[in-house]
Amino acid sequence: MSNPILNIGIIGSGSWATAMIKMLGDNSLPKNIFWWVRKEEDAAYIKQYKHNPTYLSAVEVKVPENNILTQAKEVIAKSDIVVLNTPAAYLKDALRDVTAEDFKGKIVVSAIKGIVPGDNLIIGEYLQKAFQIPLENIGVVAGPCHAEEVSLEKLSYLTIASKSTENASLIASTLRTRYINTVESNDVIGIEYAAVLKNIYALAGGICHGLGFGDNFQALLISNAIREMENCVNAVDPNSSREINESAYLGDLLVTAYSQFSRNRTFGTMIGKGYTVQSAQLEMNMVAEGYYASACIQNIIQKYKLNLPICDAVYKILYQHHSAILVIRALSEKLT
């Protein structure tokens, strides 16, 4: 008996969205892929040349011309599974014409590692609030996995989380390739919060690197970060079966904190070297989710009365304009 043909839509056209287009294109399951590309000129370029002109331009786009669209509402209408893959700060704009009715009956997957500014909600919570999507119909894609290594077909790993084991298995099956291994989880909320936090910790690591701190201090910083992460996710969503040393938590933290491809580490390094936030953003021309998450997580800290000194230190540097070297020196006295 043949497998049913799935219709899968990707909302977003950055590096991670382009990497997921590659995964889907290299996956052997029968499917139709629909891709929302924000800019008309980028969509036209991709249709003609089969490459994203701005991100991962070496990746061949295996999406039919008629399936590359500039209206998110149209992509969602054509899809059974919708993967949201924009920066968290731009999600509302991407979905501005979309209603709860458009998402009805769809499996909606977040590949976004951030918090929606203003609402201070992780993506899964935002989808439930704004579009009344049941938690069972929401999935999360987590690492450890960088888009650049996917483009190079380096062996990589994804964790797919959903409260529905059937949906988790279905999503995982569409992303699995010879260079992508997938595992499944039911820890939707914990994995989303971990993905938010690891960007902040990677930014902290970058700041320390930019200031000239060495590998010894970085190791101390990240070992403290994983304990902070565990305290936070357990406070927000108590889950006795969660194992913080699994790849979706510790693994994703490590690759984001240390990889040359980590935009959060790069952003932090620039801040540590003396760049202003604005100049670092302009030079990178990419979104470092940790910057926005740093402000949003302060509301979570206050709500749950959490002690997260690394998160506090990053916030002081980025938003309160404290001296980076003085903040990190003070932080170093609290680390064990």
TrEMBL record:
Keyword Magnesium: no
Principal EC category: oxidoreductase
Gene Ontology BP term (one): glycerol-3-phosphate catabolic process
Domain Glycerol-3-phosphate dehydrogenase NAD-dependent N-terminal: 8-167
Gene3D superfamilies: N-(1-d-carboxylethyl)-l-norvaline Dehydrogenase, domain 2, NAD(P)-binding Rossmann-like Domain
This protein's UniProt keywords: Lipid biosynthesis, Lipid metabolism, NAD, Oxidoreductase, Phospholipid biosynthesis, Phospholipid metabolism
Superkingdom per UniProt: Bacteria
A GO term, aspect molecular function: NAD binding
Cellular-component GO terms for this entry: cytosol
Protein name in UniProt: Glycerol-3-phosphate dehydrogenase
Annotated source species: Rhinopithecimicrobium faecis
Organism lineage string: Bacteria, Pseudomonadati, Bacteroidota, Sphingobacteriia, Sphingobacteriales
